[in-house]
Amino acid sequence: MRSMWERARATEHARVRSDAAGTFLVGLALLAVGLVGVWRGPEVPTDLWWFVLTLAAMCAVMLGKARRPLLSLAAGTVVAALDAVLGGSMGVMVGLLDLLYSAALRVSAPALRRLRVGAAVIVAGSGAAAFAATGELRDSANVALLAFAVLGTPLWWGTSVRQQTEIAALASARARDLARIGQLREQEAVLAERARMAGDLHDALASHLSAVAIHSEAALAAPRPADAEQAARRDREALTAIRSASVAALREMRSMIDLLRTGDEARTSPARLGELAGLAAGFRGQGMELTVDVPSDLPELPAAVDQAAFRIVQEALANALKHGRPGPVDVLVALGEEMRIEVANPAGETAPAAGGGVGLLTMRERAEALGGSFRAGREDGRWLVCARIPLGAGT
C-alpha cells in the first residue's frame, strides 16, 4: 500500500514539473511571436527579457501548486500583477489559469467557496470600474466577460473535474463497503451453518454414543456370574445393545457426511414426529421404561417445527438415559395454538443444571429460533424438559 502511494506521489510531482516546463516553453514561443502587451494594447516593449523573468517566476511558482495550491495561487497572482504592469504576456496568463484550475481541484471545500466568491466580486468589480471609467455599457460587459474568462473558466473546469473525482471515489468506497458487507454476510451464514451442523451432530449421535457408554460401563462394572452360560448371555445382551447403538450412530454419521459431500438436502430425510415410534423403540431396547403420548392423527406440520420437535424429544431422552435414574420416562406432545413438548424422567444426581450443557443449549436454540420457549429443571424429584413452539413457525 505504501509503495502504491509513493508511486502516485512521484507521478504527481512529475506531472507538476512537466506542466511548469511546458508552460515555460509555450510562453517563450508566444514571446518570440510577439504576443505581449495583453493589457496595453498593441504597444510592444523593446526589451522582452522582463517578460522572460516574469514567465520564469510564474513557472517556478507552479512547482508548488500540488503541495500548497492556495499559497502558489497567491504568489502567482503577484507575479501576474507585475507582468500586467509591464503590459502583460500570454505565457504568464496561461500559468495563472493553471494555478486557478489547480486550486479549484485541490483546496478544501470552504476555500473553494471563498475562491468562487472572490472571483465573482472581481468580475463584478471590473465591470463596474469599466463602466465608471468609460460610461459605455458595451465596454463594461466586454471587461466583465474577459475577467470571467480569466477567473471563472479555470475555476469551473477544476470544480467539475473535482466533482467527478469525488463521485468516482464515493462509488469506489460504496463498492468496497458492499464487498465487505457481502463478506460479513457470508461469514455469518457460515457460522450459522456450523452451529446448525453442530446441533444436528450432537442430536443425532449423543443418544447412541451414550447408550454405548452406558452398556459397556454396566457390563464392565457388574460382577461376573459364576454360571458361564449366564455370563455369556449377559455379555451377549450388552454387546447386542452396544452394536445396535453403534450401527445407528454410524448410519446417522454416514447420512450427514453424504449431505455435506453433495450439498443436496433432498437426499436426506429430516427426522419428523412421525418417527417417534422408532425412536422410542430404540430407547426401550436400551432398557428405558418409556411412555409416549402423541396424537394419533398428527396434522401436516411445517418442516422446521416437525424436525425441531423430534430433535428436542431425542435429546431429552438422551439426557434421561445419560443422567437420569432408572424409572418411568414420559413423553407428551400436545397440539393446540402451539405445540407443547414435555419429557419427564427421574432426576439423577448428575442431572445438568438448567442453562448448562450442550444438549440443553441446542434444545433451547431450536425452540427459540422458531419463536418458542424452553425450560428444563427439577420438579418434584423428576427432571422436566418443556418446550413450546408456535405451529405457524417456519412457514
Automatic annotation (TrEMBL):
One GO molecular function term?
kinase activity
Query: Which keywords fit this entry according to its UniProt record?
Result: ATP-binding, Kinase, Membrane, Nucleotide-binding, Phosphoprotein, Transferase, Transmembrane, Transmembrane helix, Two-component regulatory system
The record's InterPro entries line, in alphabetical order, gives: HATPase_C_sf, Sensor_HK_TwoCompSys, Sig_transdc_His_kin_sub3_dim/P
Q: Membrane-spanning regions, if any?
A: 21-42, 48-66, 73-97, 117-134, 141-157
* Gene3D superfamilies for the chain: 1.20.5.1930, Histidine kinase-like ATPase, C-terminal domain (3.30.565.10)
List the catalytic activities from the record. Answer: ATP + protein L-histidine = ADP + protein N-phospho-L-histidine
- Judged by the first EC level, this protein's enzyme class is transferase
* Protein name listed in UniProt: histidine kinase
Name the EC number(s). Answer: 2.7.13.3
Superkingdom is Bacteria
Q: Does the keyword Cell division apply?
A: no
Q: Which residues form the Signal transduction histidine kinase subgroup 3 dimerisation and phosphoacceptor domain?
A: 193-264
Native organism: Georgenia wutianyii
